[in-house]
Every structure is written in C-alpha cells, then in structure tokens.
C-alpha cells in the first residue's frame, strides 16, 4: 500500500492513462499476492515494479494492436474489398466441402482436445487461457492443441 501511488505514477508514465494505471496496479497486486503466498521475498518492491512494468507494456501493445485493427480507413477498405470480392459458386462449394471435413475431423477428437483446438485456432485463445478453462497445465494444453491440429491436417490434407 505504501508504494501504490508511486506504482500508479510509474504505470501511468508507460501507458499514458491514470485510469488504466490504477487498474494495472490492482492487477499487479493480485498477481503479486498469488505468486508470493507463503514465501518471503527480499525485494518485494522491485518485484511489484516488474509486474507493473510487464502489465503496462502488455497493455500498451494490446491498445496499439487494437487501434491499428479498428482504424476507420482500414474498416472502409475491408468493407469495400469484401463487397467487391464475391466468391464464385465453385469456390463456395470447395470451402463448404472443406468445412464439412473439418467439422467431421473435430467431432472425431476427444472432447478436451476438440475444445482446446477450437479455442486456439478458431477463438484465438492463448495456451494459458485454454489451460485455465480446462483446469490443466499449459504444456498439456499445448499437447492437446497440437494433437487436434495434427488430426485436422491429416483429414484435410494440410491445414495451416
């Protein structure tokens, strides 16, 4: 608590928003508390600053990524491109068949593997998020995703 205002100022200097900095410091404290349960650290302040710095940099990157994706000019270009690029019936038929094969391949997987694969490839979830959702370790989440993708590649004859 003694370092709270200094941590907020530090986070704010990185991300440029005091409101977001407050949230980051709160998140940092929760992570710090969870990581140090039952352990004594020599440099708790330095560890807290490192957590705040990492969270602030991650937040700054995410904001930059989101703003570049949602720029108005990009949206206008995407809408125009989609409107002018109507697929021909043959293309629709090919992808419809591939989609059916993919759905069949996914249905053949064990439930946990299917969920992990869908979360990662379709939902864009990170391995940590998959592990948390399935209540498994991150290496096991990686293994499940890898097995699911390999199975789908075999069935489709090469899936990126």
TrEMBL record:
**Domain RNA polymerase sigma-70 region residue range list:** 4-65
* UniProt KW keywords: Sigma factor, Transcription, Transcription regulation
Q: RNA polymerase sigma factor 70 region 4 type domain: from which residue to which, for each copy?
A: 101-150
Entries under Gene3D superfamilies matching the protein: 1.10.1740.10, Winged helix-like DNA-binding domain superfamily/Winged helix DNA-binding domain
Pfam families reported in the protein's UniProt record = Sigma70_r2 (PF04542), Sigma70_r4_2 (PF08281)
Q: Does the keyword NADP apply?
A: no
Q: Which family does it belong to?
A: Belongs to the sigma-70 factor family. ECF subfamily.
Give the PANTHER family listed for this entry. RNA POLYMERASE ECF-TYPE SIGMA FACTO (PTHR43133), RNA POLYMERASE SIGMA FACTOR FECI-RELATED (PTHR43133:SF63)
Q: What is this protein called?
A: Sigma-70 family RNA polymerase sigma factor
